[in-house]
Amino acid sequence: MNNYKLIGRAGEGAHGFVFKGLDLRTQKYVALKKVAVNPNVGIPKNIFREICSLRVLKFRNIVKLIEVTSMGSSVILVMEYLPWSLADVLKNYDKSLTLSQIKTYSKMMLNGIDYIHQNHIMHRDMKPANLMISEKGVLKIADFGLARIYDETTPTLYSHQVATRWYRAPELLYGSRNYTQSVDMWSVGCIIAEMVNGQPLFPGETDIEQLAIVLDTLGTPNDETWPELKELPDYNKIVFTPSTPKSWRIILSTADSSTVSLISKILIYNGIRRLTAREALKHEFFRNEPYPCKLSKMPKLKNEAPEMTWNFADFDECLEKLEKK
Fold first, then answer.
1. Which ranges carry the Protein kinase domain (predicted)?
2. Where would a tag sit more exposed on the chain, N or C end, judged by fewer CB atoms within 10 A?
3. DSSP state letters, 4-68
4. What is the pTM of this model?
């Protein structure tokens, strides 16, 4: 760790704190993610998945893993430093995103998820907070702690307790354990809709409320819209009042026809029929005016707070706070 100087805290993930650091060899900023390791158990499963995924995935729209090192009994992931997330932009940008900007972010997100899927990996936690943005405006997918290899030729049971609730596909809410990469596309559809509306599309406080909001918005599924529904583990555990689907013109009141078309072809119950990332990239949404804008026209947030020099002992202080939560 002698090659790095701590500058300050950059964020807090589900499995560790992230610090902003300076690589003394290159004079470039880096993100330092430190995770405590129990010597009796080894590297946490989620961190191992993240390391493996980032070592395989080398792409312009995926955060770059620079190296993996250690300090005492902790593992430290050194990644490229990206100052903002899409969540930061949606919360702190002083203007509404233009449709051109939404298209640019959507295209970069879809390019990234297409690359991930082509490499037989499911991300399983796509959300605005995990979409990091560089100072030049490039969007990069981060946080692969829930990523899993996906092999459609080999039946595999996966955990349904994945993806942040607001972006969790309905099959996961019904307890499915043999889902596909289409769960990532549901999340993508929710993210694009959130950029359009300026607020989350399905903001449930509990899993049951989450499912209720989805069903109230898209209508009660049936054998035609979701043939496999009755086979899902939690199908009979709760009954919702029947509802008819709302018009997408109401759901996305400010959107044009091509935007509505794209989102409505992603946010459907039957995962087999959801657009893939590659199919979405070919949608008229990206071919119609206004076209995706250049990076120079993308949002830029205000400068960060003044930098401070930190001690590596601060890592341990943060970990102690995390353990108390």
1. 4-286
2. C
3. EEEEEEEEEETTEEEEEEEETTTTEEEEEEEEE-BTTTBS-HHHHHHHHHHHH---TTBPPEEEE
4. 0.91
